[in-house]
């Protein structure tokens, strides 16, 4: 068996920028690939947590991410979520690389968010007020990606993190000023009253793929353009969407697939809030992992010239 390339978290940070990851996702969605054809995430219960298995295949590559999720417990002295990613040649199914799946996810999730909000950034003020619920890896990753993305539009991000110690009054004072709100928490119930948000706000929720969990209320879905990676996946796993449909705030037909947004961004008017609910899908990991692998090969080629 040929040797398998190992790509560390440090390698990933060096090889691919947040914008590179967004470009890789865009390229795949502009091809004949449709997220509705992606393989489903599978979950398996363990005595002290769970396994998540996320396979996908597109173009020249196939891959599978293996994720472990442990309960929130500071005494464990380990990250709540850990992962590895196996990348394969699509035609021979020979493994060609092993990537740090945790760092891959930290890069991939904000990249998907940036892809979803990129068409709307031109309507924002020069200094963009950003509120991020959650200061963990995904909150920090979104802050990094947002600064980079906004800089390409000659915009500056003024970012405030909301954590468990932030008072209700402080949150109520922050939200009416927000241009972008990122929700990256494990909350089971809405984090805020969406009536506090202005009409042209952009909201992204990435914290859960649990049908019983939600970070935003149904009132937000009622007044917003609601974007999802895939309708069927959202109806299976997105508590924010499932509860809002059950409460009559939105219908399945009103959900806007991400591929539609990428191909026809002009079809969505800036006449109301934009809400993107992200679950994290297997094709996204594959797109970014493939870009990392390709960038690694190019770096080796350049160094040998």
UniProtKB/TrEMBL annotation:
InterPro entries: NAD(P)-bd_dom_sf, ODC_Mu_crystall, ODC_N
Top EC class of this enzyme: lyase
EC number: 4.3.1.12
One term under GO cellular component: cytoplasm
Keyword Cytoplasm part of the UniProt annotation: no
UniProt GO MF annotations: ornithine cyclodeaminase activity
Record protein name field: Ornithine cyclodeaminase
